[in-house]
Amino acid sequence: MESGFSLFDHEIGARFGKRFANAAAVVHQSSLPHTTQELVSLRASQINGCGHCVDMHTKEAAAAGESAVRLHLVAAWRESTVFTDAERAALALTEEGTRLADGAPGVSEATWAAVREHHDDDQTAALVCLIGLINAANRMAVITHQKGGSYEAGMFAAALG
């Protein structure tokens, strides 16, 4: 199926896109490790079935030096040994914050305890904002039928230029 609508090729979408990118820049410039940001974005995108965002975040993470093994295991992070405790806490928060519409009870106290053990206040705020942003990005891309496969690392940053 082809794209239903090229959102950012129109005035309202373009204006929104710039503001959305500025919000994302706040998270990107935070003390939350870039690797964690990409893992979180990738995991939410996998859950939401957003091929465009899976493509983007896999390629951006790889370009930043992330290993293929870790990227391949993000979907099965609980059953792997390649993620730190801090990354595991962030991935748990991502899953629980992303699956709200699935009738999930929200974020558990155990997950919050793990997040707070491994992330300071600024990093926790960045995580919450990132999870909200990537879920919004996933929804916009899925609604407009954006497909994965053609993204090249650096394209998003270049578009903001």
UniProtKB/TrEMBL annotation:
Keywords: Oxidoreductase, Peroxidase
GO MF annotation: an example: peroxiredoxin activity
Pfam families: CMD
Keyword set includes Oxidoreductase: yes
Keyword Oxidoreductase tagged: yes
Membrane-spanning parts: none
Domain Carboxymuconolactone decarboxylase-like: 20-96
Domain of life: Bacteria
Name of the protein in its database record: Alkylhydroperoxidase AhpD family core domain-containing protein
Protein's organism: Streptomyces harbinensis
